[in-house]
Write a structure and sequence with these properties.
Elements lengths: L2 H7 L3 H13 L6 E2 H8 L3 H13 L3 E4 L5 E4 L1 H14 L5 E8 L3 E7 L5 E7 L6 H7 L11 H21 L7 E5 L2 E5 L3 E3 L9 H19 L1 E2 L8 E6 L2 E6 L6 E2 L5 H20 L5 H8 L8
Antiparallel strand pairs: 1-3, 2-3, 4-5, 5-6, 6-8, 7-8, 9-11, 10-13, 11-12
Helix pairs in contact: 2-3, 2-4, 2-5, 8-9, 9-10
The structure holds adenosine-5'-triphosphate and magnesium ion.
Adenosine-5'-triphosphate binds next to strand 4, strand 5 and strand 6.
Length: about 300
């Protein structure tokens, strides 16, 4: 079993209670003073001390010693609170293998209470560097400083909401099942990443479907993916048809964003070039772009 799941199993109600208090108070303190935790917990201080020792040993909190003793959550601590909420709401039942470590996320498989296989994506914003966060995540640039956990939660919420709206207009994206904080649960797409997909049957149709998803995103939802590549497309075979699903949406920008047109052009030109080079599809990127913007009815 993976560390996150093993750790989760070691926790009881009062551990979650203390984690929850620290989470709430972190909006006011960088390290939450022990006195504050005790006051909010309404538990004897010896009990609180014991729980904090356990949480610290499991690396769910980080202790600060100095003029006062205080605690803050680690990513693992935040993971526990998110999992707890997903489990209690019946969205998730079990966590499976780790499927990948991205620049800014950890992706696991999982199971719902009904036995459906799902994807559990833990956003890890700021794991690389804050500079990169500001550069890549446009929503982070407006505030002078936002903490790692706030940024990670924003990424989770953004990805979930984008998927919800995209799924509603029948764009080819994984069905979103729920989220908590920085963790998003979606349908598991049984497929293979486009960059690994050899021997495509109908590449022109696949490209058309991808452009159609970009068009729905742009015209019906009002967003631009902004990081489209052969790594963020999963090809699934259903009814003997190749279906390209576009994944990884947290960095999307709204159509009104000053960078939207430039990012849309980048996405379209990039994917058009990929299909031209790999499959010899003859496509005019300008025409494809006009199709996505709704100025043409056909991309080819
Ligand atoms: N719905 C899904 N179904 C099946 N596999 C998925 C699904 N979502 C993600 N994956 C797998 O996990 C990998 C990483 O997912 P995703 O692209 O969403 O995040 P990421 O690339 O780690 O994020 P970042 O771009 O910040 O590095 C994918 O390449 C794919 O192999
Ligand atoms: Mg990706």
């Amino acid at each position: 079993m993976v560390l996150i799941a093993l750790t989760y199993k070691k926790l009881v109600d009062r551990d979650f209670k203390i984690l929850g208090i620290i989470e709430r108070e972190m909006t006011r303190y960088e390290y939450v003073p022990v006195e504050v935790i005790e006051r909010r917990a309404k538990m004897p201080s010896t009990h609180v001390a014991m729980i904090l020792r356990k949480l610290n040993m499991l690396k769910l909190v980080k202790r600060r010693l100095g003029e006062y003793v205080g605690y803050r959550l680690t990513y693992l601590g935040l993971d526990m609170l998110a999992l707890r909420s997903l489990v209690e709401r019946g969205i998730l039942h079990a966590l499976g293998d780790k499927l990948g470590v991205g620049k800014e996320s950890d992706v696991y498989s999982g199971l719902t209470p009904g036995g459906e296989r799902v994807i559990v994506k833990f956003h890890r914003v700021g794991r690389t560097s804050f500079q990169r966060v500001v550069r890549v995540r446009h929503y982070a640039a407006t505030k002078p400083y936002t903490s790692w956990y706030e940024l990670a939660k924003i990424a989770g919420q953004r990805e979930y909401r984008a998927l919800e709206e995209l799924y509603r207009v029948r764009a080819l994206v994984p069905r979103p099942l729920g989220y908590s904080r920085h963790v998003v649960v979606t349908e598991f797409i049984e497929g293979v990443e486009l960059y690994l997909y050899e021997n495509a049957v109908d590449p022109e149709k696949m490209l058309r479907d991808i452009l159609d998803t970009l068009r729905k995103a742009y015209l019906e939802v009002g967003i631009v993916h902004g990081d489209l590549s052969e790594y963020n497309v999963l090809v699934a075979i259903s009814d003997e048809e190749e279906k390209p699903y576009i994944i990884d949406w947290p960095q999307y920008v709204e159509r009104e964003h000053p960078a939207a047109e430039q990012l849309l052009r980048r996405d379209v030109e990039y994917i058009a070039k990929f299909f031209r080079k790999k499959y010899g599809v003859s496509i005019d990127a300008e025409k494809a772009l006009r199709f996505v913007r709704g100025e043409l009815e056909e991309p080819f």
